[in-house]
Amino acid sequence: MKYRTIGDGRFELTVSQMCLGTMYMGTRTDERTSFAILDRFLEAGGTFLDTANNYGQWNGDAGESERTLGKWMSSRGVVDRMVVATKVGARTLVAGQPGMENWQGLGRAAILGDAELSRKQLGKDRLDLLYAHIDDRSTPQEETVDALAALAEDGKVGLLGASNHSVWRLDRGRQLAKAAGRPAYSCIQQKASYLLPIPGPVQLNLVSADMEDYVETEGLTLLAYSPLLTGLYARPDMTPRAEYGHAANVERMAVLREVAAELGATPTQVVLAWLIAGRPSIIPITGSSSVAQLDEQLGAMSLELDAATMERLNLAGREVADPSLFVGQPMLGAAR
Q1: Cα(285)–Cα(191) distance, integer angstroms
Q2: What's the pTM value of the predicted model, to 2 decimals?
Q3: Per residue in 214-266, pLDDT tens?
Q4: Closest Cα to residue 41, out of 285, 228, 304?
Q5: Does residue 305 lie within any of the structural domains?
Q6: What are residue 307's phi and psi, to 5 degrees?
Q7: What's the CATH code of the domain at 138?
Q8: Among residues 1, 32, 18, which one has the least CA distance to residue 291?
């Protein structure tokens, strides 16, 4: 396993370069299977887990992922060994109706109250990393920043982060905190993968070229969720979602498979290694429904991509598609 240090100049954490996503643990993935996956991750040297206070609400009760992690860490005696990131803001306030219109938002009461609930469910005295799960334009940003900073100052949270935010909102939140001399967002979690989606009118959850530039300039940590596009790279027969179904991605997928074959690796492993080797280096958040899937993903930790391979992967598809497709899209791993 590879490791890196993340922090904000005030607080630091050493984490595994691969983060295990646990969205469906305790619901779609039963407890026994979840524990087996977590045991294997621990055995491989994994220390970084990702969850959220709303995970489970689509398949059962909100918070089931946190409770499953808490039970596993307690039973294995690794509460202090594992670094757990969780999120607040998207838990439904109407049981059985998890739509966005019912999400709790990022008001002070929701943040403070659910941080306590997450600590209890995880069995941790301190939340290692707490994200504002999704931007809440209905709540004054000052209120959100103040509540999160208060948790960090009280020692109830280590690092602060934001997910599914636009660059300007991230920067505004950071500037509000910094102007007051208070803890600010240092970790950014967005959606990113090797295949590129067709640009849409509102895609604030994606890693963009501006996001890459901002993160690298500010010295922040960038994490990518859904890096494997729900198993697309492992299933040649799987049809990509509409936003990924274009000529450039046909070429990119072909080059990806060629590189994987040459390296004796799988496309899944190359995608993860590509994210890690890029600039800025990204921590991929992977999800597994079996130990076998996790073992394949762990293989990326020993895969090294040289500069020529990175350039080949980055440039794939640019000669067969409308150039406008790539405007504003990231060049993860590109030389700068």
Answers
A1: 10
A2: 0.94
A3: 999 999 999 999 999 999 999 989 988 888 988 999 999 999 999 999 999 99
A4: 285
A5: no
A6: -60, -40
A7: 3.20.20.100
A8: 32
